[in-house]
Amino acid sequence: MRRKIICLFALAGLVAPLSKAQLWTWTKDQMLEYTKAWTGDRFPDGRPKVPDQWLDRAKDTSAEEIVMSRIGGGGLPVYSQYEGDFRVLHPDMKMAGRAFTVMFMPTRPDLDSVITAKLRAVGVPTLNNQYVIDMLQPRDVLVVDLYGKHEGGTIVGDNLFYYIMKATNGGGLVVDGSFRDLDGIQDMRMPCYYRYAHPSALTPQTTTVAGVNVPIRIGNVTVMPGDLVAGDKEGVSFIPPSLAEGILDRADTLHIHDEWTRKKFDEGKYKSSEIYSSPKDPALQKEYQEYLAKRLAEIKASRQK
């Protein structure tokens, strides 16, 4: 049922006057309506555009810091937008970018023939992975729901992977499915999270684009166009733009807390129960609060340089 509801967003334009945008993606008004919590900059199509500075900050965080920032700490809402169990192409690289979402579905000829005819009527000869990839912007992360498909679910090979890397300035790729030519891709320095590598091709006989920049499902989470995508060697988080700054601020605090805790353990004077997860002694609590304020000020100053 969930996938059928999402698909309605992508296909809503089939009953509207012909327009490229309405055939398989949200109109600008729909994008604004469904992402109305975001009040900052946007792309021309209405997709939220979180600041580059936030992307830079996200690269300094870990999956743990982001996830722990989302469980109610610091006044933030309780929820989770983390997905793991990926294969990670470059575990040493952090991912941080803006979600550009694509949804695939198994091919159904009777439906596809109608969509194809309407696309051609407005000058779109083929709606495929290359057409979508050509829409990417710098610092985008291409986030693809290929419903966990292995053989025949290969979103790109080495040439298109290279194109994505150049078009997004190394933003990244997350695919709940496959890519091909791991041998050719493995030395390309772009973050990538994937389920499988397989030498088969992605063909319209088996799978088809059903939606672009609409809500999609990746594993157990819903991803919205414009989400801040942050990944490390553990997995990927998809952060709603309206909550991103608060989560990043909370992640700074958690990082400093861990830093201070290890410093106290290094002194060899305290049991874990005296320090973790909050110092029990009032004097230690005061020391921690002073250390926290000092380090937050230092971090803020370093980002303003």
Strand content: 15-25%
By CATH's scheme, which homologous superfamily of the largest domain applies?
Ribonuclease E inhibitor RraA/RraA-like
CATH architecture label name of the largest domain: 3-Layer(bba) Sandwich
- What's the tally of helices? 12
Largest sheet: 9 strands, mixed
CATH topology of the largest domain: Glucose Oxidase, domain 1
Q: What are the secondary-structure elements, in order, as H or E?
A: HHHHHEEEHHEHEHEEEEEEHHH
Helix/sheet category: alpha/beta
Strand segment tally: 11
Amino-to-carboxy terminus distance: 50 Å
Shape: elongated
- CATH class value of the largest domain: Alpha Beta
Low-confidence stretches: 1-23
Mean pLDDT: 88
Helix content: 25-40%
How would you describe this structure to a colleague?
The structure is a single chain. This protein is of the alpha/beta class. It folds into two domains: 239 residues, Ribonuclease E inhibitor RraA/RraA-like (Glucose Oxidase, domain 1); 61 residues, no CATH class. It is 39% helix and 18% strand. It has twelve helices and eleven strands. The strands form two sheets. Strands 1, 2, 3, 4, 5, 6, 7, 10 and 11 form a nine-stranded mixed β-sheet that branches. Strands 8-9 form a two-stranded antiparallel sheet. Strand 8 and strand 9 form a beta hairpin. The radius of gyration is 22 Å and the shape is elongated. The N terminus is likely disordered.
